[in-house]
Amino acid sequence: MIKTTGINHVALVCRDMKETVQFYTEVLNMPLFKTVELPGGGQHFFFDCGGGNSVAFFWWADGPPAAPGIASVKKFPFDAKTAVGSMNHLAFDMPEDELEATLERLQNAGVEHTHAIVNHDDSPAGMTQEMHDGVFVRSVYFTDPNGIMLEFAATTKEFGPDDIAHEPATADMRTEA
């Protein structure tokens, strides 16, 4: 039987490793703990994002350019769809009482962000401005210098059987964009 103990790391791609190191170490306070030079003009750097987890970045001198709206989110929450096989966003777990301070830190660092905590619930919109018993996660969304959508997320309730209430969609239900 396969048994995992969590996420070891998520590997993303950056356009500028120096800028990425500055953002993740200085703005997000994630220590850089490993760097690798790759054959053929590339790099692979690892940052400690807490809880024994890490986020890593590749950089290649001849890497393809960004493709917002295809491989990354164009603009949350208004244009958040991404292509099949892409990474939509990366969420870092955070205690709820830290969310307000992150808004101020992002603002002071000049990082574009949601400017308010997003309360996710089961309403038709999927989010609300008011905190209530149905809110299951509270989030702050922002992008890194590479256009990667990031989230600080605080889970606010324990999940149970009632939280699985939808049938999974199938490929034949897709509509062409």
UniProtKB/TrEMBL annotation:
Return the CDD domains for the record.
VOC
The record's Pfam families line, in alphabetical order, gives: Glyoxalase
Q: Which InterPro entries match?
A: Glyas_Bleomycin-R_OHBP_Dase, Glyas_Fos-R_dOase_dom, GlyoxalaseI/FosfomycinResist, VOC_core
Q: Which Gene3D superfamilies match?
A: 2,3-Dihydroxybiphenyl 1,2-Dioxygenase, domain 1
Q: Which residues form the VOC domain?
A: 6-155
Q: The organism sits in which domain of life?
A: Bacteria
Xref: PROSITE patterns? VOC
Q: What name has this protein been given in UniProt?
A: VOC family protein
Please give the organism: Erythrobacter insulae
Give the organism's phylogenetic lineage: Bacteria, Pseudomonadati, Pseudomonadota, Alphaproteobacteria, Sphingomonadales
